[in-house]
Amino acid sequence: MKNKAALAAALAALVLSGCEHAGRNTLPTGAEAEKIFPIRAEAAAEEEVLRIGDRLAIRVLGEPELTSDLYRVDGSGNIQVPLAGEIPAAGLRPGALRDELVRRLGSRFIRNPQVAVIVTERNKTTFAVEGDVREPGIFEATPTTTLLAAIAQAKSPNDLAKLNEVMVFRLINGQRSGARFNLADIRRGNAPDPQILAGDTVVVGHSALKGAWKEFLQAAPAFNLFYIFR
Questions:
Q1: What is the number of helices (H) and of strands (E) in the chain?
Q2: Which keywords accompany this UniProt record (predicted)?
Q3: Which of 65, 81, 193, 198 is deepest in the core (most CB within 10 A)?
C-alpha cells in the first residue's frame, strides 16, 4: 500500500515538474508578433518581389536586341540586361526593376524608353514545419499559405503539441527574427492568421505537461492506477 502511494506521489511530481523545467519562451507574441509577421494582405504583397531563379520577359519598345523572354534572376540575385548592365533584382518588385531599366537606358542610350517587365515563371520556394506535428517536413510556399495552412500540410499538431507556443522564424534584412503565435486563438478567429513566406521555419512547441502525463500513464499499469486513485 505504502509503495503504491509512493509511486503515485512520484509520478504526480513528475507531471507537475514538467512545466517548471520547460523554460520560459521570450519570443514576442500578440501585437508585437504581428508587427514582425504581418497578416495575409500585407505579406501577400511581399510575395510579389522578384526572387532568385525567377524567369522574366523584358520588352523594350523598338529595341529587339533588348527584348527577350529568357531573362532570369541569377544565383546572386542579379539580372544581366544589354546596355543596362548588371542589376540587383532579387527583392525588387517588377515595377521597381522596370523603373531602374528606364533610368539606366534613358540616361545614355535610348530617349524615353518604353519598358515592360513580366514574371513568366516563379522559382518554387519552400518553408519548413518542425516540432510536435504529425508529419514534419518541407513544403512549397504559395501566396495563400498562412500559418494554419502550413500546420495543416504537416497533418496537424500531435497529441503533445503546445498550441499557444507555435513559433515562426524568418530572415528579415539579413537578421533571423522569430515570433510566437497561439494556434488555438487563430482557429477560433480571435487572432489573425499570419502569412508564411518562402524560407520560413514553423516550430510547434512541446507541452512538457502532456509529455509527463503520457509517461505517467505508461509507467503505471491500469489496475494500479485504479487502485491508487479510486
A1: 8, 10
A2: Signal
A3: 81
Contact assessment for residue 186 and residue 147, using Cβ atoms and an 8 Å cutoff: yes
How far apart, in whole angstroms, are the C-alpha atoms of residue 114 and residue 105? 10
Residues composing the chain: 230
Give the domains, in start order, of the chain with CATH numbers.
Answer: 2-46+125-225 (3.10.560.10), 55-121 (3.30.1950.10)
How much is the pTM?
Answer: 0.53
Q: pLDDT for 89-143, tens place per residue?
A: 988 899 999 999 999 999 989 999 999 999 999 887 889 999 999 999 999 988 7
Q: Point out which residues pair with 11 in neighbouring strands.
A: none
C-alpha cell at 220: 503505471
Grid coordinates belonging to 100: 531602374
